[in-house]
Design a protein that fits this description.
The chain is of the alpha/beta class. The chain contains 5 helices and 8 strands, in the order αβαββαβαβββαβ. Strands 1, 2, 3, 4, 5, 6, 7 and 8 form an 8-stranded mixed beta sheet that branches. β6 and β7 form a beta hairpin.
Length: about 170
């Protein structure tokens, strides 16, 4: 993180947004440290998040919710990756994976598109974790809001989400 980054640390986030509170609770329930920060501007895309956080776009773990056979499928992909859903479906024996509508994402993740976190959802989501993210010592992911992010290691993200590791491109 750069010295210029003006953030609000977790202690002052209580009550900021119930979805962010759910993410914070999920981190703690997973035995992890609450690393959620509030940033001054929207970080709804990997590029804007990387610019605000002063990290490589590849270190942003995008939480992308897709629809697969009527159910949600969460793919945690590097911000530098374009997910090849055909490849993921083929490699895991899944039916067609489709882009989910914003309403579908909100219904199943409980968080808005552009702010979806890897955890803190109303119910567990089937999750795949992009193996390209393993090359970064610190990952940044949405934390339930367009202005909240969390930092986490690859191994902690894998463990906290119960994800299956996979190449997404």
């Amino acid at each position: 993180m750069t010295a210029e980054l003006n953030t609000t640390r977790t202690g002052s986030l209580a009550g900021f947004d119930p979805t962010v509170d759910n993410v914070r609770t999920a981190l703690l329930s997973a035995g992890l440290t609450d690393t959620v920060i509030l940033v001054p501007d929207s970080v709804a895309t990997a590029a804007t998040a990387a610019a605000v956080l002063g990290c490589e776009v590849g270190a942003i773990a995008n939480s992308l919710v897709f629809e697969c056979d009527g159910r949600p499928l969460l793919i945690l992909a590097s911000g530098a990756a374009k997910v090849d859903v055909r490849k993921v479906a083929r490699e895991h024996g899944l039916p067609k994976i489709s882009r989910a509508s914003a309403d579908f994402v909100l219904e199943h993740a409980g968080q808005p598109v552009g702010g979806v976190a890897p955890l803190g959802h109303p119910a567990p989501l089937r999750t795949f974790l992009d193996t390209d993210l393993a090359r970064y010592p610190v990952l940044w992911a949405g934390a339930g809001s367009h202005r909240a992010m969390l930092s986490i290691s690859y191994q902690d993200l894998l463990g906290a989400t119960g994800a299956k590791e996979t190449a997404v491109r």
